[in-house]
Amino acid sequence: MKKNNIALIVHACDRYELLFKGFEYFFSKNWDFDIPVNYYFATEEISADLANFKNIKSGKGEWSNRLSNLFDQLDEEYVLYFQEDMWLNKPVDPEFFAELFKLTLANSWKLVKLNSSAVFKTSSTDLSIKGFNVSRLDNKESNFLMSHQVSLWNKAFFKAQLKPGEHPWRNERKGTKRLKKLNPEIFHLDYFAENGNSPVNNNAPDLVRSEYQSISMNATLNHNAAPFLEELKSAPHLKTYTEKLVYNFNNGITHDGRPKPLKKDLFKRIKDWVKGKK
């Protein structure tokens, strides 16, 4: 397997710059950089210097346009997708990823979801990776076929799901409808206990899972951030940084101090409903 077949990309926005150091701290603590991928930390216009990552930039624009621009800069065939507010809190197993990459490349899989969620309905296959069943998604019964949680994607297939002008919420909502219509084969493994979620597949007992927490909601730190903030307090070199995070957390301040972003689809639906009542 060639190392450059797979890119691990952390898709960040400049408004979330405050999270970069925290992401780096917990990712470096729990990730194994011997895992054979190329590492990219993607910003819009600002520069980010994270250990072991190459900083690439998308430029400004809507979410889907920016991610599509980033994919045009990558030579790799596959992308392992993260976002900057997904903070690892349990170690990863490099042997799991080596086997995952081997199977994905050998079978030309388009999408392998790696986060557990009750919205996924699956059926078992005869394949497993270190006790994790490689399950197949029931596209009709599952929700969020298009999601931005940690997943391994064929880059060209991912790019095809990025319609121009879509913000992230619209991309997940409309992208799920498009994928349901397309009905591709989507695989799922319970590797990451996202926000502590339980496994959904028929796995072997006593699995050793990794975990990440989504520590931000609508540009502010949420309750999942609290344990990370406590741990950061034991890192003297991050004292000033940690104090800033704790202040924002306690006071509900956004990462850049600006107003919270609007979920435009929600407000459009409300506006349409009001118009319909007139």
Written overview of the protein:
This protein is of the alpha/beta class. The chain has a single domain, classed as Alpha-Beta Complex (Spore Coat Polysaccharide Biosynthesis Protein SpsA, Chain A), CATH 3.90.550. The protein is 32% helix and 21% strand. It has 8 helices and 15 strands. The strands form 4 sheets. The protein has a 9-stranded mixed beta sheet. Strands 5-13 form a two-stranded antiparallel sheet. A hairpin with a 2-residue loop joins strand 8 and strand 9. The chain is globular. The N and C termini lie far apart (62 Å).
Indicate the topology.
Blueprint: E1 6-11, H1 20-30, E2 38-43, E3 54-57, H2 63-71, E4 78-83, E5 86-90, H3 94-107, E6 111-115, E7 122-123, E8 128-129, E9 132-133, E10 135-137, E11 151-154, H4 155-160, H5 168-182, E12 187-192, E13 211-214, E14 216-217, E15 220-221, H6 226-232, H7 239-251, H8 264-277
Descriptive keywords:
278 residues; 9-stranded mixed β-sheet; Spore Coat Polysaccharide Biosynthesis Protein SpsA, Chain A; alpha/beta; 15 strands
Radius of gyration: 19 Å
E-strand count: 15
* Poorly predicted runs of 5 or more residues: 266-278
- Percent range of helical residues: 25-40%
Main beta sheet, described? Answer: 9 strands, mixed
Strand order of the main beta sheet, please?
Answer: 3-2-1-4-11-6-12-10-7
Structural class: alpha/beta
What is the annotated CATH architecture? Alpha-Beta Complex
Measured distance between first and last alpha carbons: 62 Å
Q: Mean pLDDT, nearest integer?
A: 94
CATH topology name, in short, is Spore Coat Polysaccharide Biosynthesis Protein SpsA, Chain A
